[in-house]
Write a structure and sequence with these properties.
By secondary structure, the protein is mostly helical. Among the domains are: about 130 residues, Alpha Horseshoe (Serine Threonine Protein Phosphatase 5, Tetratricopeptide repeat); about 90 residues, Serine Threonine Protein Phosphatase 5, Tetratricopeptide repeat, CATH 1.25.40.10. It is built from 17 helices and no strands. The two termini are about 40 Å apart. The N terminus is likely disordered.
Length: about 325
């Protein structure tokens, strides 16, 4: 069983802690949102040294350990279990617990998966029961129904039902998820139709154009990807990401010059936007500018990369240095 789980950080109303602790929790969240996971981890650990029953700190620390940069699944499970034990009626904690169990199941053996499967389902179902509008919990439950064997509670009919619920809560996320179900079944026209419906219903929503762009990019529909990401940049000319994604599509089109121009604009907005730096390296490689590509990838080493990302960058640097 594999669970692709969407995980994130959410603001919560804090009622059981002093103002000082509340501010510290928000400080940790600010660090996490800024990509400073080590600093966020330190904040939450300091809180737990003073108050081991702080459910919110356990939850947020568990989310840190579920992330790619500081992944430690055992610790994630431990902290999520603590959070749920302290406050079993918080939907975010139940969702976090389901995410932790699901992540553990990805690399577990068959017998361990059989133990974890009902725990994953139970946690996501409980989160949905506690908060019927919890989108991530609905997605987690839907992924479970999609990916688990029937003997462990997998049920495609229920996965499709959950997709419709998610559409009702957030059409962008819902149709993106429903399209992924069609893609899994290799029904590409039906998948594309979900994006067409989304764009027809929400033509002024930049998020709709962004997800459509990624769909076309995945399926080598480069011109359609460029058109979608162009709409994204028109609606969000204030973000480095929009120009980065449009550049990514131009890389696929083998138009290095256009990609470089877009990426330079992106990095003018945010010089530390590492996806733009990485794609810029690819653009220089495509253009045959080995020296510039090498310098760009070396710059990436200063980023807060995951272990796998760092290995890939180091491999690129080694290849270009030969």
């Amino acid at each position: 069983m594999r669970s692709t789980l969407a995980v994130g950080f959410a603001f919560l109303v804090l009622t059981a802690h002093t103002a000082t602790v509340g501010q510290t929790l928000e400080e940790g969240l600010a660090f996490a949102r800024a990509g400073k996971q080590h600093e966020a981890k330190g904040v939450y650990e300091a809180i737990l040294k003073k108050d081991s029953k702080n459910a919110e700190a356990h939850y947020r620390l568990g989310m840190i350990f579920l992330g790619q940069r500081l992944r430690d699944v055992d610790k994630a499970v431990e902290h999520m279990e603590e959070a749920v034990e302290i406050n079993p009626k918080e939907a975010n904690y139940q969702h976090g617990l389901g995410a932790a169990y699901g992540t553990e199941a990805q690399s577990a053996g068959v017998f361990r998966q059989a133990i974890l499967a009902p725990r994953v389902k139970k946690a996501f179902a409980k989160a949905v029961e506690l908060n019927p509008r919890h989108i991530e919990a609905h997605i987690g439950l839907a992924r479970y129904y999609q990916q688990a064997p029937g003997i462990m509670g997998g049920d495609m009919d229920k996965a499709w039902q959950e997709a419709e619920i998610i559409i009702g809560l957030d059409e962008v996320q819902g149709r993106t998820f429903k399209a992924s179900l069609f893609e899994k079944e290799k029904k590409m026209p039906e998948a594309e139709n979900e994006y067409k419906t989304l764009l027809g219903n929400r033509p002024a929503d930049w998020k709709a154009w962004r997800v459509a762009g990624f769909f076309y990019l995945r399926h080598q529909r480069t011109d359609d990807a460029i058109a979608s990401f162009t709409k994204y940049t028109e609606m969000r000319p204030d973000t480095a990401d929009s120009f980065t994604r449009l550049a990514q599509a131009h890389i696929q089109k083998k138009d290095a010059d256009r990609a470089i121009a877009l990426l330079q604009k992106s990095l003018t907005m945010d010089r530390d936007y590492w996806p733009a730096v990485s794609i810029l390296g690819s653009a220089y490689e495509l253009k045959g500018q080995k020296k510039e590509a090498l310098e760009t990838y070396q710059r990436l080493l200063a980023a807060n990369l995951t272990e796998d990302q760092r290995k890939n960058v180091e491999k690129k640097i080694k290849e270009l240095s030969n």
